[in-house]
Amino acid sequence: MEQEFFLVDPETRRPVPEAEQVARHSGAEFDVQRELTPFQIEFATPVCRTSAELAEQVLLGRTHLAKAAQEAGCRLLAAGVPPLGDAGPSPLTDERRYRLMEFTHRKMLGGQGVCGMHVHVGVPDRDTAVRISTALRPWLPTLLALSANSPIEDGEDTGYASWRSIVWSRWPVGGPPPHLGSAEQYDRLVGTLVQTEVVLDAKMVYWDARPSSHVPTVEVRVADTPQTAHEAVVIAELVRAFARTAATSAEEPERVDDVLLRAAYWRAARDGLDGLAVDPRSGRLAPAREVAAELVARCADALRDAGALATVEEHLEWLRAHGTGAARQRRALGDSGDPRELVDRVLAATTAEGHPGLPWTSHRTGGAR
User: What Gene Ontology terms describe what this protein does at the molecular function level (predicted)?
Assistant: First the structure.
């Protein structure tokens, strides 16, 4: 699992370009990478095989990176866009690839310094990865709604639960993947995109579900960076359970209309989990929480086998009472009217252990203290 974070100044609470320093302080123990701007940093867990192992690694990585940020004179913030400052202030990270992207895609890179989470699930072959990506298409808006954590930009409410996804949708190959039937079809399409210079290479295909370009996994990239480690693990467990369910199903992936799917994305980005959702399978509106419960029910056997069903169901109930990261950000801003107080609350949540009373909060190790 890969998570991207902002680095913010402890006084102004605005992004600061300290990724190089933070990476240096983090050492070689953890997989830490620089991102599009020097205001961002990424941490990737090792391969994890159980819920407890993943929860431990996510929390260890966040606390380690937060310590490295503090040593570099800044703070680690888990949000899809920075609540103070804009999403992607210049300059870009000074690497050849990012400079080439700036040349090919030009002003579009402005504001693209947003933070998301990518979940990789191991698959036996690339055909299976394409099958899972295609089957996941109708449910990607639901995963987006569950993870929404970017409503405030530069101190103002955008009116969207996930402003990150709206910003990211500018990319010509962002959003939901096309309905494809095989890895051969996928490779042929990506080859055409490279040949026509829409993308630099296969790594720049930013669809929200895709076969990984460098490891034997299906990669799901639809989520905002969740506010807490616990929420990150819940999203990852849902993705893993859906991947297993789709890979073993005898049914062909359901085909949904592309226009309705884009509409479902937009509605999920705007309303998150608190409003109505466009169901791209039926074209009707339904309460977003009911659609989320349907997703969990569809994956129930795989979640149960992983020992995660009860925790995921309890998390949905917790969200009903406390709201997603987006709702909590709005509430924090409303409580004080000061966006700096909002940033402070998100900073505290970034390395929080989890939600009281939920099983994963107990998987804490000495290194995470």
Answer: ligase activity
